[in-house]
Amino acid sequence: MHCPFCRHPDSRVIDSRTSDDGLSIRRRRQCPECGGRFTTTETASLNVIKRSGVMEPFSRDKVISGVRKACQGRPVTEGDLAVLAQKVEEAVRQTGVSQLDANEIGLAILGPLRDLDEVAYLRFASVYQAFDSLEDFESAISDLRADHVKAPQAE
């Protein structure tokens, strides 16, 4: 790590802490040359490979904007969307890979969105899974109904 003051190519770590979100590490460093102290933040990179082959960093904001469209007119708050995006990021990071297909992000969105709002889930799934007919909707609705029947028995 280069010193931001004198550009010395090395520094010594004085203190390391996990940040508030738990996804990054904050390190206090000191330059052995000039004695200047500075802070760095380290995060694990997570890249998404789009259908076109272009690679870009994972973005919670993109998850939120994609899901927001499905949630229009539904009782879903911005806070709910932020929590959903956090769950999606945690799920994809738990896979342990640093690069994943955009398709895998969509699959990771479906579960938390289904728990959040079933109508928004159907809207998102209909676009994401390219529903072609009423049968596709009927099948998805049947799956939701089957889960409602199972849920009370699980308690």
TrEMBL record:
Single Gene Ontology MF annotation: DNA binding
GO BP annotations listed: negative regulation of DNA-templated transcription
Protein name according to UniProt: Transcriptional repressor NrdR
Zinc finger (unnamed) boundaries: 3-34
Domain of life, per lineage: Bacteria
DNA-binding as UniProt keyword: yes
Co-factor(s): Zn(2+)
Pfam families linked: ATP-cone, Zn_ribbon_NrdR
Family label: Belongs to the NrdR family.
Residue ranges of every copy of the ATP-cone domain listed in the record: 46-136
Gene: nrdR
The keyword Cell division belongs to this UniProt entry's keyword annotation: no
Organism: Microbacterium hydrocarbonoxydans
Xref: PANTHER family: TRANSCRIPTIONAL REPRESSOR NRDR (PTHR30455)
InterPro entries membership: ATP-cone_dom (IPR005144), NrdR-like_N (IPR055173), RNR_NrdR-like (IPR003796)
